Amino acid sequence: MPDTTVRRIVVVGSASRLGERVVARLRDAGVEPVGIDRRARPGVVDVVGDVDDLDLKPRLHGAACVVHLAGPLALGAVLDAAADASVGHVVVASSATVYGAWPDNPVPLTEDVPLRPNPGFVFAARAAEGERRAAEWRDGHPDATVAVLRFVPVLLPGGETWLSETLARPSLLRPADLLPPVQVLHVEDAAAAVAHAAMAGLDGTFNVAPETSVPGDTARALSAAGIPLPLPERAAAIAERWAWRLRVGGVPRPAEPYRQHPWVVASDRLRATGWSPSYSAEEALVACRKGSRWRELSPKRRQEAALGVVGALGLVVVAAVAVAVRGKVRASRRA
Q: What is the pTM of this model?
């Protein structure tokens, strides 16, 4: 295990909400963190610039570890600089979406399960490619250690990320019995996991998640800031696609399986090293849920609002189906 008495750790992506919390935890632990990010936040970022445009080697010199939170596209530059600066330990943030969301997924998924990101979902595919590059780098540097952390969606109090907004919020348009279980992580527990992996010199791949998940209907009740309007499967899929196009909710089509099938992970391997979350998935949903005027309405007003939205949504679905049918008719005529 690397010498954890060396007190300099570089955090790439330190201006993100996760990054600033990681930096704060390292400082509280007596570590000297150096932040690198393209965005500046007072007291967090010491070096500002795009990773690809920076000469990273001097900034990594003398570091015991580099933590990469800036996404898979910038990972190659960071790994190259880590090798040039003889950094002995690297922590890479990845995503549990690399497992894919499939009807036959085991529950829970362990780190030994083959990666099957759903076709067309770029976010998951890039995360899997980043893990492949990290594995190749580890093989080429046998004296170094690499910890890959596969996070379930991370929730932020009073804020949202693209992933938490789309994949961590159960669909409002699907029947409750068709909603998959939801597993989310509070941002403070995510930061604790990153700091732990960096300071303890962890080596290998680790799922980062609470011990349990939340049933889909319960998660929707705890987190949704809107009105559940269950629709038949095909109508729900069409409505969600239109909602995504109109930027009023939904998910992109390649990510739809993540709202339909389970992708719950086991975090026993990371727990065995000494990390433990402070929030359950249910507690994280409650602590980070968006404000909702819906909850403040009287039962009568809720019923009136629901009926109005159902009618409007029905018109949207009918219009979408009509457009699709018209397109098929035109295509058949041209053929």
A: 0.83
